[in-house]
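Regression test case RT-17, inverse folding.

Input:
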């Protein structure tokens, strides 16, 4: 497939260039564009044939529902019903931004988009390029993360260009995504709202405005994953080609353990990578990638680092364990999935 590429400067958005891509969306074709979380692979959410092309381009199982991206809050009332007060508060407080809400769908939303469910996931992104493209397309845009199914989500223009050129009709290259982790998915159809996928907006932030929030308990253990309420959380995900392990325990023990594993692997001709906080990067042997100083930085750099490990032909990656406080919950969720829940306790 011939892919039309547009390079857009976020600080000086060329609206006529965006128009070319929006025209593709209007014609039922697929276009990749940046959002504040990760790049999305979009198509008209109300057009079943267009949505089918998303699943094909990603190689994604079609029971995994898509997030519908809107330009304005008003559109939500065309797509969903039974919108309660907590849903209203979330939209008011966090939109535009990295949170997706699950609502009861109206008939206008095809089952192809909702993965056969009676609910629909909706989000209003804040990224100015995403907003302009959705506005010009004039329809709600279904968009999963723009990676081949199972791979880490793309957070930089190079990631989408390298992986998806030729698989979609259009790509908007628009620099780096600022959060680097996907949106929080919050089910607001239940009495007490429940986080189905932790993300950039934290449980603590949500509880400040709507009171108690639950977290889907099946996310914590691999054995329970098939019970996950967000179908996408059941699948293998965020996996680089390298084999990933999380090393957990006291910091000095982690460093000692990883270094001894690096040595052992070296003797066996296994190329080993390490992912860690910036402050520890000089303490490790092997190919070390710092993920940054703060949890926010770790969230932003994680998917890129996983992709870098493959570029460096690394066979095995050891990652430090991170705090599960705040955005740490989303980081550890992604890291555990990318490691297939393999943890080395020290
Ligand atoms: O940040 C994001 O959310 C990015 C950008 C592009 O907006 N999108 C994204 O989409 O991460 P995707 O398709 O990769 O992940 C959507 C998640 C999946 O785990 C899916 O199962 C869940 O949301 N989901 C979608 N609709 C749902 C529904 N009706 N009920 C439960 N979970 C749902
Ligand atoms: Mg995804």
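Golden output:
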């Amino acid at each position: 497939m011939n892919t039309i590429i547009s390079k857009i400067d976020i600080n000086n958005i060329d609206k006529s260039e965006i128009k070319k891509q929006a025209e593709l969306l209007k014609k039922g074709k697929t276009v990749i564009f940046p959002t504040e979380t990760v790049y999305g692979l979009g198509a008209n959410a109300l057009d079943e044939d267009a949505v089918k092309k998303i699943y094909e381009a990603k190689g994604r199982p079609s029971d995994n529902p898509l997030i519908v991206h809107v330009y304005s809050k008003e559109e939500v009332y065309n797509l969903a019903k039974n919108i309660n007060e907590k849903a209203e508060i979330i939209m008011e407080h966090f939109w535009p931004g990295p949170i997706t809400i699950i609502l009861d769908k109206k008939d206008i939303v095809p089952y192809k988009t909702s993965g056969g469910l009676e609910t629909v996931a909706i989000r209003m992104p804040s990224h100015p390029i995403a907003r302009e493209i959705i506005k010009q397309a004039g329809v709600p845009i279904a968009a999963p993360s723009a990676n081949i199914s199972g791979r880490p989500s793309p957070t930089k223009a190079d990631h989408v260009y390298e992986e998806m050129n030729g698989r979609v009709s259009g790509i908007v290259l628009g620099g780096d995504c600022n959060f680097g982790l996907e949106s929080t998915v919050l089910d607001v159809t239940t009495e007490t709202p429940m986080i189905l996928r932790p993300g950039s907006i934290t449980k603590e932030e949500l509880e400040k405005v709507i009171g108690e929030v639950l977290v889907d308990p099946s996310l914590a253990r691999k054995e329970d994953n098939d019970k996950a309420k967000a179908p996408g959380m059941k699948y293998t995900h965020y996996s680089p080609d390298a084999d990933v392990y999380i090393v957990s325990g006291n910091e000095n023990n982690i460093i000692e353990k990883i270094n001894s594993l690096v040595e052992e692997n070296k003797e066996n001709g296994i190329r080993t990578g390490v992912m860690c906080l910036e402050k520890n990067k000089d303490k490790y042997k092997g190919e070390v990638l710092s993920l940054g100083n703060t949890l926010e930085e770790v969230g932003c750099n994680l998917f890129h680092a996983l992709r870098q490990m493959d570029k460096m032909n690394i066979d095995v990656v050891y990652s430090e364990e991170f705090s599960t406080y705040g955005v740490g919950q989303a980081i550890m969720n992604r890291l555990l999935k990318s490691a297939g829940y393999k943890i080395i306790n020290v």
